[in-house]
Structures are given as C-alpha cells and as structure tokens.
C-alpha cells in the first residue's frame, strides 16, 4: 500500500520539546496506510546530520580543514569536510533500504541504491563549504521525492522532477547551535540539537516568514555583472523612503543555509541572480533552490528565478543551475516586478 502524508487537518499539533523522532512518528500515525518507510528514512537523515555535526564541531582538531586536492563535477576544489559529509549521507541512506536513487552536488551521476527503494533523496552535503576554514555557519540541504513508478526499474528521471513534487525538504544549520529545519508539507518546524542527549528537540514550531521584511541578502560584489533591472532594484532597496521602510539593511554571509535561515525567520529577501559570469545562475536547482523554495512556500514565503516560480521548473539535468530569489512574499514580488520591467 502506498504511504501517504497526513493532511494538514489531521496533522498533530507541534509541541515544543518533542523530539524529532516523536514528531515524525506522530505524523506517521496520522497518515492512513503509512508503512513507516518515510519515517524511517527521515530518522536516517537525522542520524547522518548528527554524525556530520560531530565532525564539523571537531574539524580543526581532527585534521578535517582544507582541501582534498580533488575537483568535483562542478569544477570546484573539494574540501575534506565536503567529502566526509557526502560519504556519510550516501552510506547512511543506502543502508536505510528506502532509497531508490540518491543524487548529490558532489557526485557527477546519480547513484542507484541496491534496495531499489521508493524514495529519491537529493542533497547538498555541506553548503557554504568555502566558509569552513573561517568557522562561519555552514549546513546540509536535502529534499525527498517518491519515485513515480516504484515497481519499475530505477532511472535518473526519478530525480529530474519539478520541485512541487517534493514530499519533504529540510536543512541543518551548523551554527552556534545545530538546527534541523524541516517540512513534510505541513508547515515548517525547527529542531535544536541537545548535544548532551544527542537528540533534536522541537524549538520553533510553525515558522512563518513575514509578509515583508527590512533586510536584503545579496553579493553586491557582483553588481557590475548584473543586468540593468537588478541594478535598478539594488539601488531602489537602498534608497531612503520611510513609507516603504527603506533603506533595507544589508546582511550577507555567503552560505545559503545561513542567509536563507535568517531570511526565513526575519523576512526580507535573499537573491542570487544570474550575471555575465554565471549566465544561468550559480545555485543548483535540485540540491539548493528546490528544497529552499519548498520550505519558504510552506512558511508563507515565495521563491522565483526572477520570472517563474522555482518549484514549477522542470529539471533537465542533475546539476542544472538557476537564479534564486526567496524570502517574504511581498519582497519577492517586488523583485520580480523589477525583473519584468514593471517598476
């Protein structure tokens, strides 16, 4: 019997202090026909990120800083922690027995799991890895989909599906505290790791992104490479106008998980547009843009590539890149208006 995700009406209330395992288990009990596979897979992801967190916390002492000397499929030098996080996720998820296909930002090709399970997991094992050596917030991003035909042979097409088919997405932020932010399609909840217990506990239930914020996050070092509409938006957001609460404050870390998490909680807008250097955008659709877009929409926010909804883009390749703008729905709409020449 196919496992279903409970409707919003039947979803149990989120209770602060509930463990991640209990929260996911309660959701399973509310889902008619649930088999436990979805719940088990989420628990395996939780295990993987706890292992990664342990190594991140001791990276400087464990000789895990710096590069491996290899270059990944993206043409980027591989950090030691990148490779470690990727190996952990692959090994843990394959052993779960619930994955049919795994795809990672660090792997050129999708990986077919021996179990031929009915779920697809797409992930960026360590987002913001350029910040590892400077001890700035980094994280893990993932999305889960059901295979379209679990009884058929596993194929890469199982991974090349638009983001609106995602059944679960989340990210872990390895910051001052370790946060696990999750949505199974029924709102967004944040769990904080208690290192003394080794469990994630619900700390912020039902996160809602404000309709409009007062901050923006973008790499202004790329200003000269942006097309005119983006430059115009950037100038507008820094102008003083008390009626529209401008200028916005500028905050930019350079780790998607860190910048997106702040935007999710505080509102405003995060933008990584295309430019003359990265003509198709820089962020990866499957491993970064889609999971974050899913989370922001679940929290009442929005995500676009400047012209269309991120979750409606049909992927054509595993490592497809895209412009990404996400945040408060009104701020994202304003950005899109500039892109469409309406301002």
Distance between the termini: 51 Å
Tally of domains: 2
Q: CATH topology of the largest domain, anyone?
A: Fructose-1,6-Bisphosphatase, Chain A, domain 1
Q: Helical percent range?
A: 25-40%
Can you summarize this structure?
The chain is α+β, with helices and mostly antiparallel strands. The protein is 27% helix and 23% strand.
Question: What would you say this structure looks like, in words?
Answer:
With 343 residues, this protein is α+β, with helices and mostly antiparallel strands. It folds into two domains: 185 residues, Fructose-1,6-Bisphosphatase, subunit A, domain 1 (Fructose-1,6-Bisphosphatase, Chain A, domain 1, 2-Layer Sandwich); 125 residues, D-Maltodextrin-Binding Protein, domain 2. The protein is built from seven helices and 17 strands. Helix 1 runs antiparallel to helix 2 and helix 2 runs antiparallel to helix 3. The longest helix has 21 residues. It is globular, with a radius of gyration of 19 Å. The N terminus is likely disordered.
Question: Which features would summarize this protein structure in a list?
Answer:
eight-stranded mixed beta sheet, Fructose-1,6-Bisphosphatase, Chain A, domain 1, five-stranded mixed beta sheet, alpha+beta, 2 domains, 343 residues, D-Maltodextrin-Binding Protein, domain 2
Give the helix/strand layout.
Blueprint: H1 20-29, H2 37-57, E1 67-71, E2 77-79, H3 80-96, E3 99-104, E4 111-112, E5 119-127, E6 138-146, E7 168-174, E8 178-183, E9 189-194, E10 199-204, E11 215-217, H4 228-237, E12 249-250, H5 256-266, E13 269-272, E14 283-284, H6 285-298, E15 302-304, E16 321-322, E17 324-327, H7 329-339
Parallel strand pairs: 3-5, 11-12, 11-13
Antiparallel strand pairs: 1-2, 3-4, 5-6, 6-7, 7-8, 8-9, 9-10, 13-17, 14-16, 15-17
